[in-house]
Amino acid sequence: MTVQAHRFEDDQIDLTDKTVLVTGGTGSFGRQFVRTVLAKYKMRRCIVFSRDEQKQYEMAQEFNPADIRSIRYFIGDVRDVDRLELAMRGVDYVVHAAALKHVPTAEYNPFECVMTNIHGAENVVKAAIRADVKRVIALSTDKAANPINLYGATKLASDKIFSAANNLSGADGCLFSVVRYGNVVGSRGSVVPFFRRLLDEGASEIPITDPRMTRFWITLDQGVNFVLSCTQIMKGGEIFVPRIASMKITDMAETIAPGVPHKVVGIRPGEKLHEVMISEDDARTTFDLGDRYAILPAFMSRRLEHYREGGVPMVEPDFRYASDTNPDWLSPDDLRAMLAAS
Prior knowledge:
Blueprint: E1 19-23, H1 28-40, E2 45-50, H2 53-60, H3 65-68, E3 71-75, H4 81-87, E4 93-96, H5 103-108, H6 110-130, E5 135-139, H7 150-169, E6 175-179, E7 183-185, H8 191-200, E8 206-208, E9 214-219, H9 220-233, E10 239-242, E11 245-248, H10 249-256, E12 262-264, E13 276-278, E14 286-288, E15 292-295, H11 301-309, E16 321-322, H12 332-341
């Protein structure tokens, strides 16, 4: 199976008769996650935790009556640890997807970004431990690796909080891990709907930030399956990174809008030319699991030994997982297949 076609459907956690809470559950990922798990498992409850009642109302209209019986909607903010703790009563697993994610917005509103992305992560950890949740998996971003903007810096801090939380929960307590992946095809913040909207409006050219720019790409379906499989195999403390394909932004624009001229508009403040998901510094504690990588914190010696004793190979000391040097690339046909599936 090629990397770009990998759906991460093996070794997924069984959620039958389980209760799962999704923070930021009305976002692109949250909606797809809820659709997927309700279709796969006969769950006890699936709790959507978010702060926008209108989005919750709109989401509720998408599901049939049989699904609605399994879904609960909680209005709440990850900044409110008491509300989180109430929502997590009787919850088995938590998927933490809530975040402020737009780079320019974070630069202009730094306090708000820190409150949600860093203090919110701290609150999820506290509430999960107090509510005896079994496992928590948090969504991260490529921008957390060697961050150059505030959003990336807050997500790096969040990643560190979740890895270190395993020291607070104890040997038999809640497990905490992180998943980190790149751009999601078709999500609300993706360039794909932006390009499509320009075409629908009759644009005569497509804006390109830099013709050299490359990005990792994953579908929502792949992202959900990756989270489910990482929740199954996690030992606590890992940052899981999927092996996915890259594409030049110019090739993506040409695939979506063939023949339409490109206009170079320049890189936005805080934006990288290429994405990095594993830096050379992280390579020293990174293991190659075949279809994904697992970055372990250097201070978690017992977790490191678990992987080593299990025969899991480590990456080379100078390994760097970046979108420009990635050996796996999307062809136009690959992208069209991903768009059709998204």
